[in-house]
Amino acid sequence: MAVTDTSPAAAGSARRRQTLVTGWLLLALSLFVAFVFALPVEGNASFRLAFPGDAFTVSNLVVPAAPYAWVVAAVLAFFGVRQFLPGAARWSGLLLGIGLLLVVTAFLTWATAGKSFSLTGMLQATIVRAVPIALGGLAGVLSERVAVVNIAIEGMLLAGAFTGAVVGSLLGGPGGLIAAVLVGGAFGLLLAALVVTYRVDQIIAGVAINLLVLGLTSYVSSQVLTQYRSLNNAPVFKAINIPYLSDLPVIGPVLFQHNIFVYGALIMVAIATYYLFYTASGLRARAVGEHPEAADTLGINVYRLRYINVTLGGMAAGFGGAWFTLGSVGRFDENMTNGRGFIGLAAMIFGRWHPVGALMAALVFGFADSLQQKLAILRTPIPAEFLAMAPYIATIVLVAGLVGRARMPAADGKPYIKE
Amino acid sequence: MEVELRGITKRFGELVANSSVDLKIRSGEVLGLLGENGAGKSTMMNILSGLYRPDEGEILIDGKPVSFRGPGDGIAAGIGMVHQHFMLVPVFTVAENVVLGVEPTGPLDYLDLAKARQQVRAINDEYGLQVDPDALVEDLPVGIQQRVEILKVLFRSAEVLIFDEPTAVLTPQEVTEFFKIVRSLKAAGKALVFITHKLHEIHEVADRISVLRAGKIVGEGVPRQTSDQELAEMMVGRPVTFQVDKADFSPGETLLDVRNLTVLREDDSVDVDNVSFSIRSGEIVGIAGVQGNGQTALEDALTGLRRVASGVVTFAGRDVTNVSARELHKMGFAHVPEDRQRSGMIADFTIAENMVLNTYYAPPFSRGIVMDWKTVNETSARNAAAFDVRTQSIFDHAGNLSGGNQQKMIVARELSHDTKILIASQPTRGLDVGSIEYIHKRIVAARDEGDAVLIISSELDEILALSDRILVMFKGRIVAEFGAGTRPASKNEIGLAMAGAAA
Amino acid sequence: MSEARNPDTVSAQLLRRAAPARADFEDLVIVPVLAVIAALALGALIMLATGVSLPTIGRSFAALFIGSVGSLNAVSETLTSAAPLTLAGLGIALGFRAGLFNIGAEGQVIVGGLAAAIVGFSFSGLPAAIHLPLALAAGALVGALWAAIAGWLRASTGAHEVITTIMLNLIAVKLLDYMLRMPWVQREGRADPISKSVLPSAELPRLFDWIDPTLRVHAGIAVVLLAVLFVWWLLFRSTVGFEFRAAGLNPDAARYAGMRSGLIIVLVMALAGALAGLAGANQLLGVLGRASPNFSGGVGFDAIAVALLGRSHPVGVLLAGLLFGALQAGGRQMQVSAGVSLDLIAIIQALIIIFIAAPILMRAVFSFAFHKPTGR
Question: How many Cβ atoms sit within 10 Å of the Cβ of residue A198?
């Protein structure tokens, strides 16, 4: 990949510029909230927090729309002004994050004014939607930590979805899940082989695998599955209610009434974090990603570590892909992942190449995704397509460093050739 | 412990890097391995440490032949290499770097960093190294980073330590500290190999000297008895003079005037600190100093590649502060950059294309936006011939040239247009002696023709041989001036100034 | 020093061009040819694995051949399919030469095509000599702007263009969906997302419908040829191309040489986007006549394969575009007469990318075709 070319001295003022941009952004948001969410609005927003049939009933959260918006506008203005005072740089990222969160709450309150809206439902949907993104992001983290750029996450997810559906139809849910993980791993292995042994450019290899998986799954789907429909009819994993915890008000349904994919994703993130940052193997893997030559001179097998980590990432992606079919609708449709793998890539960057960070970022994206759906129900004046664009625009804004530059593993993207 | 290399031969395609090399290394002894760049020293040591496999010959440890299949085997046998370019992961701590590959672990592969820290402190105490195990490597000064490399090999119980050009990046002060550590390692019974091309250091620290030339051991020397002259002759194969013929010093008017120049880094810390000096036509000013004291920033600022935070640069009466590189070039600036592979040329371009790299945009090489390849090719061929660039054809890729020829190509490009000032940084780094002599000749020729010349080099010998006046940079400032009427240049005093101990 | 060398004779010697090395020929010709053969072979194996009988496989390959070059109609289909692939491929190749990965060609095709369609149906009463170039220019311009966003971000903030162009692709799809619902875009009386039809004055006329009205090949072919010439001249005969190639091979050296890398990045992306936008316009004005969701059909991604197969050289891209056009035309025939899904072609194309980008793999598998490299 070509090297970025901002001249060193100019970048010195980049942080100052960043803080100023944040300041203007916050002030603009404050005005926006005041004029759009506060002034013209009347009524109260009623957020439903309970489902019918809950163990405990919780009454709705009623928020007076206009006053709340005024409060948010005031807080934003305060944050914004703070950016222009000395010493702002340290907190500007955090304040911007909080500010955006407040804008979202004000938006929700405004959209729900005079109506009622299931907040718990949306939070639950957030977690569910975040699963494939988090697992895709995890796959990216595992791969990029050993300095292999993984554009093929989309393909691996799609492969997992397909395999889950077909094998699931034949062998049942657990069989399909295991097969999906193995197939995801196989494509991870392919990526590793292409990149490490055959020195294919990492981005090209990723694009090629995406196209290959898309072609293979679409071909088999139209050639075989349309004829043999029984091969495309997999059972869907049911939700598992964790005893006692799932009866808690609000938190219960949101966190403890999910199927195996959510719990599996959380466990995988935990294991990956322990592996990367608390084990010797993880230290070696990260060394390979930062300075492969140093690792090589110490007798560490750079090639083998890259193979292992990229394959593991593929397995995580296979699991995440199975969610589309075995965790959701039970049948495979062509190109059903529809860009989710790329959002996983964005989540990885947002999460600063850390498994937990990717999970947090995935939750944000999942929130945006479920928000977009619910808002269509609320019939807001903003077209659904623009809401759907929000995560993509957010990724661009992040990657452009407007809200802080993330530091990728130093050797990311470069092939390592032993002399 | 005794390590012996017997009849070692290593080929890379048609190039014979090592040819029938015999060498003995003994405990409690420092062997100095002398040779110019490209002589095969690094190859030999890479074979010894297990990175390369020899084509012929064998390695014997205490009389028994061993075969290494990878760097792990060399380490396991007790041979540790301290590389010239540090093999450290910048974002890891010292302790993490030291234990990488041989980590202390607990159950479930848990990385026991507490134990690692403890072990690092133990070695610190034993050899007087004083390195903080929790410091991030990227925050450490170069001299301390080198100690981390030493820690690494000691941690792996190395009995043989090989140092590849260890003093290349150290201040004279740090070099003295380094020699102390070498002596303490020797006293502890380690066998040490010291690879260098710096003659004076060999005398200081080695017990025996072997000279390598073109892949063969061509001679032995006795430290402090064999003269530099003899050693250099063995290194190069013919009589060598260290003098460069210069015409008498008769400078003209001031061409470049730098006043209060300050250049800042990304994090707003000071790289070049309020520097002032001037260069006259027909004068060579040399900037001495250990790399990393602001020379690169100064070079970039003076050639339009980096922003000047404050101060004024005047050229022939015109204010050129923060003028672009292209404008400076049009005014007669020639720039031979420090990192020729990175900035000075494009390896995948042909020699012809490289020859017009910074002149392609104007006549005679182009009209409007149309390139005139005929003129480009003819001019490039003439330049390559005139500047002794050894190649088959100007349509060869520049990356296929040797280092010396690449540099000659760059010098050809820069000096073949009407220059008034030449700024050359590390102009002969990594080159064979023939190319070094040629480039020195060309630099002096430019000066004799009336150019103002600025040389930046960390090779003190080069500065002393070429310069009419010498400025010493330390921590971004000019801390001393020598020569041409101010103060006669003495290596000792210059060395002190380079270390910050200016009188 | 060494013996005296007469500079004039030396200089004359240096002007001799070395004969093209065997290694270059291998890289430029043998590897691509083998990649295509290997991909077709694997395609046959995949057919076998999904239960397609051997005779049907035979019929498929026959259909591929007949459908691409076996009749006047087939050649017309090949050219029609090749046109957008070549145009977009030229854009991507230009990017590669300058060291930039334009994965965003698909999005640029979409916005360019949409713009061309809108211009195409919005101005009635214009003569074709004005309307058609205007519509084409609109496609190129909007494509250029869309790509320039990523270019500008890369130049000013260092944001990697792979991520930004992928995101812009996804945004473009949503933008298309939105625009197709707009009353001034959507066709009257229809509830489904389909745009108004392009007026005849803005259409790329069919070239050979006087021979046979079903021949679809259109004047876009001329646009393609002009584009190939333009890109060749730009890269190898102009100072601008010199800068592109320098920046692509070594951006540090380009900066040292006084080239303004920020400007170069934006310019390259804009030109690449213009070519991709032209590809979209080509499809709208010459083939489809109206915009609908997913009208681009993945041409932006296939064009990546075309650029790689063509080694990022304009002539190579033209040849590769023709090959891929043949594969698509033949694939359609294959679907009709042998009943094998068109998606097989997508698989073959992906395999071609992999094999092209892994010369080492090709050398290992087909070692009989290559000289042994000298070395350790």
Answer: 19
Listing DSSP states for A334-390 in one string gives: TTTTTTHHHHHHHHHHHTTT-HHHHHHHHHHHHHHHHHHHHHHHHT-SS-HHHHHHH
- Do residue B385 and residue C246 have CB atoms under 8 angstroms apart? no
Q: Work out the angle between the directed axes of helices A153-171 and A340-350 (0-180°, nearest 10).
A: 120
Q: Taking chain C, what is the end-to-end CA distance rounded to the nearest angstrom?
A: 33
pLDDT in tens, chain B (503 residues): 888 888 888 888 777 888 888 888 889 999 998 877 667 777 888 888 787 888 888 888 888 888 888 777 888 888 888 887 788 999 999 999 999 988 998 888 899 999 999 999 998 888 878 889 999 998 888 788 888 998 998 898 888 998 888 887 776 677 888 888 888 888 888 999 988 877 778 888 888 888 888 788 888 878 878 877 777 777 776 666 556 677 777 888 999 999 999 999 877 788 899 999 999 999 999 998 877 788 999 999 999 999 999 999 999 989 999 999 999 999 999 999 998 888 899 999 999 999 999 999 988 999 989 999 999 999 999 999 888 888 888 888 998 888 888 999 999 999 988 899 999 999 988 787 788 888 999 999 999 998 999 999 988 778 888 888 999 988 889 988 887 656 676 777 777 777 666 54
Chain A residues at the B interface, defined by Cβ less than 8 Å, are 7-12, 278-284, 286-287, 290-291, 293-300, 410, 419
Which chain B residues have a beta carbon less than 8 Å from that of A296?
A: 71
Q: What is the pLDDT of residues B164-205, one digit of tens each?
A: 888 877 766 778 888 888 888 888 889 999 888 777 788 888
Angle, nearest 10°, between helix axes A202-220 and C299-309? 130
Handedness of CA C333, C336, C340, C341 (dihedral sign): positive
What letter does residue A154 receive in the DSSP assignment? Answer: H
Beta bridge partners of A314: none
Query: What tokens were used for C49?
Result: 């694995």
Nearest CA in chain C to A401: C157
| Bond from prior residue into B364 cis (ω within 30 degrees of 0) | yes
Domains along the sequence of chain B with CATH: 2-236 (3.40.50.300), 254-498 (3.40.50.300)
HSE-up of residue B190 (Cα within 13 Å, Cβ side): 25
- Output Rg (C-alpha) for chain A, integer angstroms: 23
- Domain borders along chain C are 92-305
Listed residue (C376, A290, A419, A288) closest to B50, CA to CA: A419
State pLDDT tens for residues C189-244.
Answer: 777 888 888 888 888 888 877 777 778 888 889 999 999 999 999 999 999 999 99
Write out the two tokens for C147. Answer: 């790509």
Dist CA A240 CA A84 (whole Å): 50
User: Which of C46, C106, C152, C163 is the mutation pick for testing A, counting most A CBs within 10 A?
Assistant: C163
- HSE (side-chain half, CA atoms, 13 Å) at C59: 13
- What is chain B's length? 503
Q: What is the model's pLDDT at position A1?
A: 33
Q: Which residue has the tokens 């889950």?
A: A164
Residue B64 backbone class (left: φ over 0; alpha: ψ -120 to 50; beta: rest): beta
Contact predicate C72/C212, CB 8 Å = yes
| Domains (range + CATH), chain A | 8-114 (no CATH), 121-399 (1.10.3470)
Top residue of A13, A275, A283 to mutate, by most chain B CBs within 10 Å, is A283
> C-alpha distances in angstroms, A206 versus A66, A151, A402, C306?
49, 5, 27, 16
Would you call A42 helix, strand, or coil by DSSP?
A: coil
Residue with tokens 């039970």: A330
